[in-house]
Design goal:
Layout: H1 5-18, H2 21-27, H3 42-49, H4 57-69, H5 80-87, H6 93-109, E1 119-131, H7 134-140, E2 151-161, E3 166-174, H8 179-188, E4 194-198, H9 205-213, E5 217-222, H10 228-234, E6 240-246, E7 252-261, E8 267-272, H11 282-290, H12 293-305, H13 316-336, H14 338-346, E9 353-355, H15 358-367, H16 369-374, H17 379-391, E10 395-397
Parallel strand pairs: 1-4, 4-5
Antiparallel strand pairs: 1-2, 2-3, 5-8, 6-7, 7-8, 9-10
Helix pairs in contact: 1-6, 6-13, 13-15, 14-17, 15-17
Length: 423
């Protein structure tokens, strides 16, 4: 297996950013903070929050510092109270900025997959569960869905590079925010040369016009009654047509409408700017839209593997810190190790093709987090050992497996934060 020297540089890039004096000054909540040398300095607190906190906070602190200073876990060096006071001194914008800088570094300095020279970006939204406090209600709205009112919801949107399994942009906001509005926020901060994939709920005239004006390619799945042109197309025998669509402001846009028959018998309708039928056949468009499912898988990863909704803090700043910190660490894991493992699995001769076990990878990165960031002399060896270990847990790709999508039910009662597991 290839030694991951270039991939290990991603860790050094994060360390370089968070040790910069100007960066620290820009993202601390007061000029007087972090002026003296203490156990909880800016870098240590930042990295601790990035270490995937999904247990009782004191337990996480004890494990973290026992690894950092090589002493028994049963001894307590730092209290949870000290950490809570420290994290308030760091703005969540620090984590958002490092996430953005790491993504930029990856595309500027690393090899990555693309679709006909374009980044393949799927944008989709979901909801996250948050603890209910007066502060979170002011920020995210009073939208209690449980009988006892212990928690509320926030609207979240990801822009995911589905070929490289990276969350390029993310935002969290009011539960009543529309997915289209959040999608605009994400696209506003995206580079050009993208191919956007959207599910049925995104096609509106205003949003469609906005995506067209962004200059990037697009592929919408649309409803049967999305517009007059689509309604006419549904009733035609043709499966692939080019039509001109007039948007409300009087502009005419040439698009391609295609019908895709799914194995279940259901027919889906795609509206796309990929007009070249030779280059983008019906089968390629079918495969293209199928790749959109990776953003759904990414939500499953962060919700279940990272337990991202198990926020250790109740303040809005703390919640946003952990939101961006978890996505940052998730991206780092995928950028640093997954390409090397996937490349090695392609050479493996077996009955099935194999892929990286992402949950095993995230768990191993958490386990080795202190070694990665606090022992630079063994960084490459640590990354190499993570790759070797996770490669042994690679999972086979069994084609043709299908599962019915689970039905949505009314939200169930969740336990209070006081009952969070310590393990």
């Amino acid at each position: 297996m290839v030694r991951p020297k270039n991939h290990a540089k991603l860790v050094n890039e994060i360390l370089k950013i968070i040790s910069n004096a100007d960066f620290i000054s820009s993202h601390k909540t007061s000029r007087k903070y972090f002026t003296r040398d203490r156990i909880w300095n800016f870098q240590t607190a930042f990295l601790f929050i990035c270490s995937i906190l999904n247990k009782r906070i004191q337990s996480e602190i004890d494990v973290f510092f026992s690894k950092l200073y090589s002493f028994p876990e049963e001894l307590r060096l730092v209290s949870a109270s000290a950490f809570t006071q420290c994290r308030d001194k760091i703005s969540y914008t620090a984590f958002r900025q490092v996430h953005k800088d790491l993504v930029s570094y990856f595309y500027d300095c690393m090899h990555f997959k693309c679709f006909y020279g374009m980044r393949l970006i799927a944008i989709d939204g979901t909801t996250f569960t948050l603890p209910k406090t007066k502060e979170t209600v002011r920020e995210f709205g009073d939208n209690v869905l449980s009988e006892h009112g212990k928690w509320i919801k926030a609207k979240v949107s990801f822009a995911t590079d589905v070929l490289n399994n990276i969350c390029v942009q993310a935002c969290i906001g009011s539960y009543k925010s529309s997915e289209g509005k959040q999608a605009r926020q994400l696209i506003d901060h995206m580079d050009k040369n993208n191919l956007y994939l959207f599910d049925r709920g995104y096609f509106t005239w205003n949003f469609f016009e906005y995506v067209v004006s962004s200059g990037s390619a697009y592929c919408f799945r649309v409803k049967r009654n999305a517009c007059k042109q689509v309604e006419l197309f549904v009733n035609q025998n043709d499966n692939d047509v080019l039509v001109n669509i007039s948007i409300p402001k009087g502009k005419t846009i040439k698009v391609r409408l295609v019908k895709i028959r799914l194995s279940s018998g259901e027919q889906e309708y795609l509206l796309t700017s990929l007009l070249d039928r030779k280059r983008f056949s019906l089968n390629k468009l079918k495969h293209l839209y199928h790749l959109r499912w990776s953003v759904e898988e990414q939500y499953k990863d962060v919700k279940h593997a990272l337990s991202i909704e198990n926020f250790t803090g109740k303040k809005v700043n703390s919640i946003k810190q952990e939101f961006y910190a978890n996505i940052l660490t998730y991206n780092l894991s995928m950028m640093m190790c997954k390409p090397v493992i996937d490349k090695a699995m392609k050479k493996k001769k077996a009955r099935y093709k194999y892929k990286t076990n992402k949950r095993a990878l995230i768990a191993k990165v958490k386990q080795c987090f202190v070694k990665l960031f606090f022992h630079p002399e063994t960084l490459i060896e640590t990354v190499e050992q993570i790759i070797i270990s996770v490669a042994r847990e690679s999972v086979p790709i069994r084609k043709g497996r299908k599962y019915e999508r689970s039905k949505s039910y009314k939200a169930k009662l969740k336990f209070s934060r006081a009952y969070t597991s310590v393990v």
